Amino acid sequence: MKVHKRMSLILTMGIMLIGLSTFYIGSGLGYRVSGSMETIEAPVVTATPKILVTPTPTPTPVPNVLLEEAYPEIHDLIKSYYDAKLEVDKEAFRNLVTDISYIDMDEIQAKTSAVTAFTDITCYTKRGYGEIDYVCYVRYYMDIVTIDTPVLSLDELFIQYDETGDPLIFMGEIENSTREKLLRMRKDADVMALINSTQEEINDSLGNDEDLRAFWHRNMNGEPEPLQETVAHVSPRDLPPEEMEAELARVAAENAALAEAALY
């Protein structure tokens, strides 16, 4: 072999060795070469497990709907409470309310002196807030002395369960934040529907019974119905149709305002 060919071969082998050495060192992969052949063993790669975060579902709020006669123990409590009003005995309220010191017997006696019975008591309840476990809207009739038509009424009472699990009618101070929520509850559609339907029935009764209307004025205002200037009282039914309709509308509007003031 000629000298220049041998030199070419040596240079070529040298370049190949330099290139192989450069690749091995520069790659940083740490491949191992054994024997005269390059045997590349793939490194063992441990996969990093993926952590799947399951989002916490937002709890669906339970609707606070107005329920009719949903709690027998509350109905029994309310019935006992109205029965106690007729006994004119403060001790009758001791196991019915949270604080008997809030019972005003003079006020109760003044409002129930003409009542002979509370009948057809129906309890409509909604969950309360804070210290109030339930709000109870009580729809009932009062039998009144000398009046043939029972008087329909609607009261709002607060219920609080004691440490033994028995319901009591709450009497005491209410936190401002709780009070605001309870006031807003009165504007709920189902509560407003109950108030409006009760008011409609009251208006019908007042328009058809003069004695009932007189009692209603006395009970709501604490004073007799205003005297009429005319000696002979003219019933709306004795008026011409258009005047009768206007008179009934006036009476209905007046009594609606009185009923709303009594409830709130």
Secondary structure blueprint with pairings:
Layout: H1 3-27, E1 67-68, H2 72-87, H3 105-112, E2 115-127, E3 134-144, E4 151-161, E5 167-169, H4 176-185, H5 189-208, H6 210-221, H7 241-263
Antiparallel strand pairs: 1-2, 2-3, 3-4, 4-5
Describe this structure in words.
The chain is built from 7 helices and 5 strands, in the order αβααββββαααα. α5 crosses α7. The protein starts with a helix and ends with a helix.
List SSEs in N-to-C order: HEHHEEEEHHHH
> What is the helix fraction of residues, given as a range?
40-55%
The beta-strand count equals 5
**Secondary structural class:** alpha+beta
Uncertain regions: pLDDT < 50 for 5+ in a row?
2-40, 222-241
State the end-to-end CA separation. 121 Å
Please count the helical segments: 7
Global geometry: elongated
Mean model confidence by pLDDT: 76
The largest sheet has its strands arranged as: 1-2-3-4-5
**Which radius of gyration do the C-alpha atoms yield?**
43 Å
The quaternary organization reads as single chain
Strand content: 15-25%
**Biggest β-sheet, characterized?**
5 strands, antiparallel
Brief synopsis:
This protein is α+β, with helices and mostly antiparallel strands and 264 residues long. Helix content is 43%, strand content 15%.
Could you name the key traits of this structure?
alpha+beta, 7 helices, 5 strands, 43% helix
